[in-house]
Amino acid sequence: MNELACKALIIGGGPGGYVAAIRAGQLGIDTILIEADRIGGTCLNVGCIPSKALIHAAEMFHALGDASTLGAMGIARGPGGIDFARTIAWKNGIVARLTGGVGALLKKAGVRSLRGHATLADGKTAIVAADTGEQRIRCEHLILATGSEPAPLPGLQFGGDVLSSTEALALTKLPASLAVVGAGYIGLELGMAFAKLGVRVSVIEALDRVLPLYDAELTAPVTRRLGELGVEVALSARAQGFADRELRIADSGGAERRLSAEKVLVAVGRRARTQGFGLEGLDLAMSGPFLRIDERCATSMRNVWAIGDVTGEPMLAHRAMAQGEMVAEIISGRKRAFDRIAIPAVTFTDPEVVSVGLSPEAARERGETRVAAFPFRANGRALTLQREDGFVRIVARADNHVVLGVQAVGAGVSELSAAFALALEMGARLEDIAQTIHAHPTMSEAFAEAAHLGLGHALHL
Ligand SMILES: Cc1cc2nc3c(=O)[nH]c(=O)nc-3n(C[C@H](O)[C@H](O)[C@H](O)COP(=O)(O)OP(=O)(O)OC[C@H]3O[C@@H](n4cnc5c(N)ncnc54)[C@H](O)[C@@H]3O)c2cc1C
């Protein structure tokens, strides 16, 4: 067995692990990154990027065929069509370009990358079944970035026509019908995309509304759009099993019905990857099913760090990246702590949904608030885009107007999330946002207008 040694050993090459590796390399730390599958992890290969590519392609296809949208602008359309295998090949090309880019960045930073499954022997040693043979790697610092995987549902194990998001994003032929179990962000993003591609989509959700992590006011435009797209939504309903192209569904009263579907996408959440690589032997403290970490991403064992999805919610790529960068800096000797005020939560449904900081309800529990929402129907840019659905909402303290949270729902509002997060991190007040000149005509003007409204004097409402 080959022996290798390094200062930082990172297990998992997703956004948490590869960012930690790049930053560690930049800081001159002798670093080895182990990835069992493909660099880029869930996010680049089977998550954020491929899903957004599919969503974009679906939107383009749908717009071509949406007579109500095009007709109003005086645009006539010719016969359309889709070669879905080509759509997926295009999506794979984007993934390959990005993962190739990450590989190059790792090299540039002087990181040694090994492909293979790592098993922990102890908190300073991993055995890697690498393409080049078995390697024993000793390190001073171990960073666990093993991520997460789709969680199955009892009675609906993955396989055959029961898909996780990974298989759904790799289909090369569109099914005639798709039942999506779970109306969280992954289920709805993919469900809406397939609906726009002409698939008959049904959504089954155990709770009584879609996107339950957001408040009902914020998700109402998404619910409306689901209806417009012809997506059947069954709330307070549980999927029980799937056989002969029929999904058994029980409602809250226990009554059972059958829904016909060619494929089923189970999107009921993701579970931390903590099994199958000797983690049990380290006996690290857990927080439920996740690795427990402190504000420096330190686990209960000295010089063993954990970042990303394996450490729990919010399971988001940008959180994993921020943690990875921080841990690399801590290992290099810098004083850092994960004290971010805001981790934006974005859902790329149609319309998109953004939440940064506290919701009105959570803020109210802390004291008196001002809540102001400015609708896109009063925003010029939204009208030119034929997207007047949605609003920007600001939640601020009543006494000093410090912004506590910003939410938005509308076309393309994911791009506003940076402004919202910056406002929170900078401790902005309503006055700061209202007095910042926002370019005209942009959807971002709704942010400034919401601040004006919070101060009692919206200009365009
Ligand atoms: C369909 C979908 C859409 C998503 N969309 C978004 C989005 O829009 N925005 C967003 O922020 N997040 C999104 N996410 C979530 C995002 O992908 C994850 O939060 C992110 O990838 C977590 O990064 P990570 O580094 O913690 O883990 P992962 O990306 O899961 O990477 C972990 C890596 O570790 C490797 N690994 C595990 N065990 C071992 C071992 N023993 N040896 C070697 N390698 C190992 C795995 O092969 C994997 O590549 C989406 C997820 C899905 C499924």
Topology:
Layout: E1 2-11, H1 15-26, E2 31-35, H2 41-46, H3 48-65, H4 67-72, H5 84-108, E3 112-122, E4 125-130, E5 133-144, E6 148-150, E7 162-163, H6 165-168, E8 177-181, H7 185-196, E9 200-204, H8 216-228, E10 232-234, E11 237-243, E12 246-251, E13 256-260, E14 263-266, E15 270-272, E16 286-287, E17 290-291, E18 304-306, H9 317-331, E19 345-347, E20 352-357, H10 360-364, E21 369-375, H11 380-384, E22 391-397, E23 403-410, H12 417-425, H13 430-434, H14 445-454
Parallel strand pairs: 1-2, 1-5, 2-3, 5-18, 7-14, 8-9, 8-14, 9-10
Antiparallel strand pairs: 3-4, 4-5, 6-15, 11-12, 12-13, 16-17, 19-20, 20-23, 21-22, 22-23
Description:
The protein is α/β, with parallel strands linked by helices and 461 residues long. 31% of the residues lie in helices and 27% in strands. It is built from 14 helices and 23 strands. The chain has helices at residues 15-26, 41-46, 48-65, 67-72, 84-108, 165-168, 185-196, 216-228, 317-331, 360-364, 380-384, 417-425, 430-434, 445-454; strands at 2-11, 31-35, 112-122, 125-130, 133-144, 148-150, 162-163, 177-181, 200-204, 232-234, 237-243, 246-251, 256-260, 263-266, 270-272, 286-287, 290-291, 304-306, 345-347, 352-357, 369-375, 391-397, 403-410. The chain has a 5-stranded mixed beta barrel. A 5-stranded parallel β-sheet has the order 7-14-8-9-10. The radius of gyration is 24 Å and the shape is globular. It starts with a strand and ends in a 7-residue tail after the last helix. The mean pLDDT is 96. Bound molecules: flavin-adenine dinucleotide. Residues 11-17, 34-37, 41-43, 47-48, 51, 117-118, 145-148, 165, 186, 273, 277, 308-309, 315-318, 320, 348 line the site of flavin-adenine dinucleotide (FAD).
